[in-house]
Amino acid sequence: MTSQLVRPTTGAVRRDARQKVTGEARYAADRTPPGCLHACPVPATAARGRVTAVHADAVLKLPGVRAVLTHENAPRLGGADDPTLLLLQDDRVPHRGWYVAVVVADTPEIAREAAEALGVDYAVEDHDVLLRPDHPDLYTPEEANGGHPAVRERGDFAEAFAASPVRLDATYSMSALHNHPMEPHASTAHWEDDGLTVYDSSQGASTVRDVLAGLFGLPPERVTVVSAFVGGGFGSKGTPRPPCVLAAMASRHTGRPVRLVLPRRELAAVVGHRAPTVQRVRIGASGEGVISALSHEVVTQTSAVKEFVEQAAVPARTMYTSPHSFTGHRVVALDVPSPSWMRAPGEASGMYALESAMDELAGAAGVDPVELRLRNEPDAEPDSGRPFSSRGLADCLREGARRFGWEGRDPRPGVRRDGDLLWGTGVASATYPVLLSPSKASAQADPDGRYTVRVDATDIGTGARTVLAQIAAEALGVPLDSVGVELGSSGLPDAPVAGGSSGTGSWGWAVHKACTALRETLAGRSGPLPPGGVTAEADTEEETGRESPYARHAFGAHFAEVRVDAVTGEVRVSRLLGVYAAGRILNSRTARSQFIGGMTMGLGMALTEHSTMDPAFGDYTERDLASYHVPACADVPEIQAHWLDEHDPHLNPMGSKGIGEIGIVGTAAAIANAVHHATGVRLRELPLTPDRLLPHLPA
User: Fold this and answer.
1) Contact status, residue 623 vs residue 268, Cβ threshold 8 Å
2) Strand pairing category for 3-6 and 553-565
3) Catalytic amino acids?
4) Is the pTM of this model over 0.85?
5) Cα 596 from Cα 185, distance rounded (Å)
6) Cα torsion for 314, 559, 436, 327, to the nearest 10°?
7) Which DSSP helix (H) or strand (E) runs through 564?
8) How far is it, in rounded angstroms, from Cα 468 to Cα 12?
């Protein structure tokens, strides 16, 4: 592997830019077929129990109300791997916010008013919604998210830790976090000729099609799902969610098209979230800071509906030299909404704890935090023993330190002050795995010299249309403006979801393969093309199914400068820098957008974002953007993203790694470490809000 710094260059302009700013782009909630009705779901107001009565008669008498669906009259659904989608099938209430009815009416306003007026009676049961590290029902699952073993052990951690000259034992915690994409979750469903068409706000139309086909007992070819434009998801739209199921049920019941748009206040309960975690990190090291023993133990929660275990201890299996290691997860099933994917699940929360611990270890060993990480660079992936396909972390740390002006930093915490402002700087590493899934694609050459690539990829705002066109043009050896891209419909060649930073790598491989085959076909032809053109198809199931002998990861380094107001406790990030080693960057414009977007989200994780569980009410209290504080432009006055030109031949034909999530990984730790450097106060619970900091600050 060779890495050298490459300055961002001008990339291809986003192809959907004009469509979005002019309103031409059509989202799921923009679809209103003729005769369309509108649905509004009714969330449970009990934290646990059963529905004993639904008083639908009064609501059905209201003008414009067409139907009320409950567990007593809703269409029956088939089996599902995801039980969060088995809605209105029985009277149980597993958590507050679980949908117990759907009102269908002529207008959204009538549907909403009728839903609020619908009376529902419950037999309420005691509920348990609080995560505690000593909860009596904690258990060790078989797997964590992503199929990772819940527990991994190498060597003898306890003995090596006890014998280490420098030891750290610290516990870090963070509350639940919610995704809150700009576009609401929405679906418009229409049954016609015993087939189903759904316009859905989803990160993967093919997946939604397959799930709906199973739920409604249809062959997949009789279900069409369109997700042409999606206004963000961050994982919350990575699997089918209630809107597509409820809209399809209401449409089947009424015989009319039905549109359903979730209000933001209901998202916290039904579309997933990042579960809270309590993470204990123990590190034993030599006097020079070289790690000999590393333990990362995670306690988290899941729901009583579906097991989902945030794999927060998994990054510790990749990052640093650790001949003796223990990493494990324990989980408790509570009466809470089901957690799910949120940008960089596992890595974002796990690396906050690990990188905070590395900063504390650096202080205990008297070693510069950047140098400490360099001293613990492994020769191969510690957990698997496989060589890295490329590992640019050291180069990212060195280049980031140079750009940030790290050299000469006074390591003493709490000594730099300007009036009421305490200044500090911090660093953290980042990693994210290279994930690839099978994908199909087709490429067509037409007689007029145009080319069309077709793949059921979903552009969730990342610029997939643009980057896939670039991949196709390069493989075909033709100008970029001669290539068109069709995506976002299950009627196109199947493709995996836009998630896990795997979209471009997976779809792009199939596109590259199809275009390469088309180019070879055209090279063997003579004369004009037929009126219908020439098409080549590709499927990468065989290639992506091969087990790689390499450990494949992207890496990065984050540097943060903060100013903490000693009077108010407010933290302001004055500078934020990220340097990444993520393979070949295919488009500098879209890449920079992804990197700084992730970094901004990491800033929110560190300072403003949290979801508080009300133990009596049994639900999260921050349920809108007035109470759940996401960062605004004013919160990030200077944010920079750079990358290395990393050549890795062991990935895919493009040489690219995913970039959508690594920007958030490590950012929160870098900011938290900077806050400690500024104040001398080490708080181990996120977010670092003024009320938590202020009691510990000097006058």
Assistant:
1) yes
2) unpaired
3) 661
4) yes
5) 24
6) 0
7) strand 553-565
8) 11
